[in-house]
Amino acid sequence: MPLSPKSRQQLKARAHALKPIVYIGQNGLSEAVNKEMDSALSFHELMKVKLQIKDRALRREVLAEICKIHQAESVQLIGNIGVIYRKNPEK
Q1: Which of 14, 20, 27, 89 could form a disulfide with 48 if both were Cys (CB 3.0 to 4.6 A apart)?
Q2: In a domain, 50, yes or no
Q3: How many Cα atoms within 13 Å fall on the side-chain side of residue 66?
Q4: What is the C-alpha to C-alpha distance for residues 41 and 47, in angstroms, rounded to an integer?
Q5: Three state DSSP letters for the chain
Q6: Is 91 domain-assigned?
Q7: Domain range enclosing 51
Q8: How many domains does the chain have?
Q9: Which residues contact residue 7 at a Cβ distance below 8 angstroms, ignoring those fewer than 6 apart?
Q10: What pLDDT digit, counting tens, does each position of 47-79 carry?
Q11: Mean local confidence (pLDDT), 27-40
Q12: In a domain, 12, yes or no
């Protein structure tokens, strides 16, 4: 379910004070990174990911792949920091 502009704005405001939880380097996504991201999204719902990738287009692709794998929504991508959100149905 895509985020509305209003909810996206609220999530950006909430994410401003967060620090990146997961760092993704040139090697991309590994099984261990995906497992950590899944548990972090289940617990926090909203998280920052630092993409240490030089190519801008590749950063967008990796963030889109992360969202697809974890059924999450991309809130924003500024520079090498991406913010993703996944609603926890138990909360």
Answers
A1: 20
A2: yes
A3: 34
A4: 7
A5: CCCCHHHHHHHHHHHCCCCEEEEECCCCCCHHHHHHHHHHHHHHCEEEEEECCCCHHHHHHHHHHHHHHHCCEEEEEECCEEEEECCCCCC
A6: no
A7: 5-85
A8: 1
A9: none
A10: 999 999 999 999 999 999 999 999 999 999 999
A11: 88
A12: yes
Q: Indicate the burial class of 71 (C-beta count within 10 angstroms; 0-12, 13-18, 19 or more).
A: exposed
Is beta strand 20-24 parallel, antiparallel or unpaired with respect to 46-51? Answer: parallel
Which CATH number is 54's domain given? 3.30.110.60
The two beta strands, 20-24 and 73-78, are unpaired
- Would residue 40 count as lying in a domain? yes
Can you read off the two tokens belonging to residue 24?
A: 């993704």
For 59, other C-beta atoms within 10 Å of its C-beta total 19
